[in-house]
């Protein structure tokens, strides 16, 4: 029996993993390689040999600044060390220490983190100074990163790590050319949003997304934490029925047990985050330079509140709160009063989109009231989604930041700027994804790179100052002082059964770094000449995606180069059998031969953290389960399992689908799910599952089944 060794990792596994990428192989060791996002400036030194990361590399934090920042410079350095170990495999890199600047005759290569970078020439595009700026100086023995603030030094460590990965892939070395450079972002806000209100995600998955996005210098994660799934089949066109009470509606923050608002989460209390969980999530994200901005969406998209207190709803339109009802605003304030102390960001979002335009005055009063309340109670400012609520007598306070997403029905950014509003660009023409929406033309599997690179007016590249792909008059200049930046968004309109969490990651995997480049560097050559070309991005992305440290959303098996066998078992003598691998991401082929007899209940054949494969005796078939959402996905086609012979099964998965063939037959069957467009018009979508590779079988199978020729092979 061969099960492999998941703990074994070649020190230079990334170099072998990407040895087929010829465009990277040709780069010489003494060249700073294009990374994501591109570095603002770098001048190579001809008088010094490269800096080489070895197992003896020292990480020293300037003792003058070790406690500066929150997280502190020293804390960032410890996270950096963990990441460097993960990338190089050098498990014995010394612990981080505080000390003075190293001398050039140091006995070991040293990374020195300090503060004091000059920000005079490293401002945002609007001219404002930023603590995210950093300078770096590289000699053969020292790599000095000098941040404007601790967060700037942190981004400098991302630059170093990316260069190590690219050097490994190019030359099987951990060398970085000597020289000096500086770098800083173009905009204050560079983020992504995930709709967790319509789709449940474990907090560990959100944490991994934070860590992944941080590697590309994103700095914000907007968590859309309340919403509902519209389902016209349930409503059945009758506005006077109580069918809306059956719709899936959630708010993901779990109040304390004695809280007066505990009832709001009662139907789905097992799909909520406790204060401790959310605090730990925010802490880990902060340790990676990312701020969490939570959203509770009101007064529209508020069905979860209406189900809790039906008297607050507008009859016949229960997803709208009746703002004029005396208890409505106090009830919303009571929710925020419960959870505001959880949040470490200085801003939160109250949603406030797509309300009834005929109730504009009530809507504006609500937004301004909530702005005052959250400012007074939580010392935080608010954001709202851009929406057109015309009123001849009232205006939303300009203290409120407006997150534009659609126009003209939503908002017109140039008019918002003229009125004095700060704006975040989330324009759906460039920045919207919907889980599993690519097959109906409403959205894409990932952000359209053609649109990002050439979809702006006149064939230009997108950047946060670009709101319209066709009308330049709807765009603004990069130096607009009211343009705060940009947030891409992934919505889950179709709910839990449309996607697994990892399928959501597949949609974000490339989308995050491509917009991260534009959010950092912009698209205006007069402002910044150093930026990635499309070819440079496409060459660097697969290396950086595979090597991004601190998480394993790809569910990769370290030490194995595809195609490769993860495990192979000729004959299983005793169930359950643990493999030590848990979950393995696509592409893969899971093969086995199974003989079953007298099975009366569902039997888990393979179990992993991200999926479970069952035998279903009623359908005489196979069913996948997503254990996070507890959704089941039956194959829907019988398979000839019986007690007299072995049935051979081959399950093949890519990021777009999972298929099965039986007994080497030519017929290929798909795992699919029924979803609808905003609840109507059911259609089938393909499902992709990670291989449930952790445990084969369960104890009761010892009397009911035999299994042989079990193998898991990664690769196309």
UniProtKB/TrEMBL annotation:
UniProt-listed Enzyme Commission number(s): 3.2.1.52
GO BP field: carbohydrate metabolic process
Lineage of producing organism: Eukaryota, Fungi, Dikarya, Basidiomycota, Agaricomycotina
Catalytic activity: Hydrolysis of terminal non-reducing N-acetyl-D-hexosamine residues in N-acetyl-beta-D-hexosaminides
Family, similarity comment: Belongs to the glycosyl hydrolase 20 family.
SUPFAM superfamilies in the record: (Trans)glycosidases, beta-N-acetylhexosaminidase-like domain
GO terms of molecular function: beta-N-acetylhexosaminidase activity
Active site per the UniProt annotation: 354 (proton donor)
Native species: Dendrothele bispora (strain CBS 962.96)
Signal sequence annotation: 1-29
InterPro entries attached to this UniProt entry: Beta_hexosaminidase_sua/sub, GH, GH20_Enzymes, Glyco_hydro_20_cat, Hex-like_dom2, HEX_bac_N
Domain Beta-hexosaminidase bacterial type N-terminal: 36-179
Protein name: beta-N-acetylhexosaminidase
Start and end residues of each Glycoside hydrolase family 20 catalytic domain: 188-521
Alphabetical UniProt keywords: Glycosidase, Hydrolase, Signal
């Amino acid at each position: 029996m061969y099960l492999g060794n998941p703990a074994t990792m070649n020190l230079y596994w990334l170099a072998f993993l990407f040895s087929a990428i010829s465009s990277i192989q040709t780069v010489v060791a003494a060249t700073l390689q294009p990374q994501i996002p591109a570095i603002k400036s770098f001048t190579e030194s001809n008088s010094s040999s490269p800096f080489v990361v070895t197992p003896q590399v020292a990480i020293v934090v300037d003792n003058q600044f070790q406690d500066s920042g929150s997280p502190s410079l020293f804390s960032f350095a410890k996270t950096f060390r963990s990441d460097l170990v993960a990338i190089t495999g050098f498990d014995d890199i010394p612990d981080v220490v505080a000390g003075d600047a190293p001398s050039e005759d140091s006995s070991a290569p040293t990374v020195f983190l300090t503060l004091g970078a000059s920000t005079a020439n490293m401002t945002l595009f609007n001219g404002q100074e930023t603590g995210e700026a950093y300078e770096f100086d590289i000699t053969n023995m020292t790599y000095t990163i000098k941040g404007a603030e601790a967060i700037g030094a942190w981004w400098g460590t991302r630059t170093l790590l990316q260069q190590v990965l690219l050097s490994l892939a190019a030359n099987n070395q951990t060398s970085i050319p000597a020289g000096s450079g500086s770098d800083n972002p173009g905009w204050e806000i560079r983020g992504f949003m995930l709709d967790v209100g319509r789709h449940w995600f474990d907090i560990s998955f959100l944490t991994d997304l934070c860590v992944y996005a941080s590697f590309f210098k994103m700095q914000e994660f907007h968590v859309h934490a309340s919403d509902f799934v519209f389902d016209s089949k349930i409503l059945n066109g009758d506005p006077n029925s109580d069918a809306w009470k059956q719709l899936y509606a959630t708010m993901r923050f779990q109040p304390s047990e004695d809280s007066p608002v505990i009832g709001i989460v009662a139907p789905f209390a097992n799909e909520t985050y406790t204060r401790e969980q959310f605090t730990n999530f925010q802490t880990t994200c902060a340790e990676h330079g990312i701020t969490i901005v939570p959203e509770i969406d009101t007064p529209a998209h508020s069905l979860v509140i209406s189900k809790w207190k039906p008297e607050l709803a507008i009859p016949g339109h229960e997803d709208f709160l009746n703002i004029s009802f005396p208890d409505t605003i106090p009830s919303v304030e009571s929710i925020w009063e419960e959870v505001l102390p959880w949040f470490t960001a200085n801003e939160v979002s109250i949603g406030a989109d797509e309300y009834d335009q005929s109730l504009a005055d009530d809507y504006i009063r609500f937004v301004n009231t909530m702005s005052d309340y959250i400012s007074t109670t939580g010392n935080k400012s608010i954001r709202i989604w851009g929406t057109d609520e015309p009123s001849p007598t009232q205006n939303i306070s300009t203290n409120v930041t407006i997150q534009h997403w659609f126009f003209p029905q939503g908002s017109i950014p140039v008019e918002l700027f003229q009125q004095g509003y700060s704006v975040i660009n989330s324009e759906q023409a460039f920045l919207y994804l919907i889980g599993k929406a690519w097959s109906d033309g409403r959205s894409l599997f990932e952000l359209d790179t053609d649109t990002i690179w050439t979809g702006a007016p006149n064939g230009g590249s997108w950047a946060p100052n670009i709101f319209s792909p066709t009308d330049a008059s709807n765009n603004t200049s990069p130096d607009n002082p009211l343009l705060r930046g940009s947030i891409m968004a992934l919505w889950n309109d179709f709910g839990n059964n449309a996607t697994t969490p990892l399928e959501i990651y597949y949609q974000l995997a490339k989308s995050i770094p491509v917009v991260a480049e534009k959010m950092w560097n912009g698209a205006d050559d007069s402002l910044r000449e150093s930026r990635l070309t499309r070819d440079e991005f496409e060459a660097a992305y697969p290396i950086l995606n595979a090597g991004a440290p601190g998480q394993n959303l790809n569910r990769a098996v370290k030490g194995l180069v595809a195609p490769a066998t993860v495990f192979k078992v000729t004959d299983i003598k005793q169930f359950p059998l643990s493999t030590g691998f848990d979950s393995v991401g696509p592409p893969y082929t899971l093969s086995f031969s199974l003989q079953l007899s007298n099975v009366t209940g569902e039997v888990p054949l393979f179990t992993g953290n991200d999926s479970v494969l069952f035998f279903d005796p009623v359908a005489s078939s196979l069913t996948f389960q997503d254990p996070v959402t507890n959704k089941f996905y039956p194959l829907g086609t019988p398979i000839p399992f019986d007690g007299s012979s072995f049935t051979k099964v081959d399950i093949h998965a890519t990021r777009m689908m999972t298929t099965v063939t039986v007994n080497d037959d030519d017929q290929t069957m798909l795992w699919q799910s029924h979803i609808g467009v905003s609840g109507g018009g059911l259609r089938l979508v393909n499902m992709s599952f990670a291989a449930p590779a952790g445990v084969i079988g369960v104890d009761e199978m010892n009397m009911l089944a035999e299994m042989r020729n079990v193998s898991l092979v990664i690769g196309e």
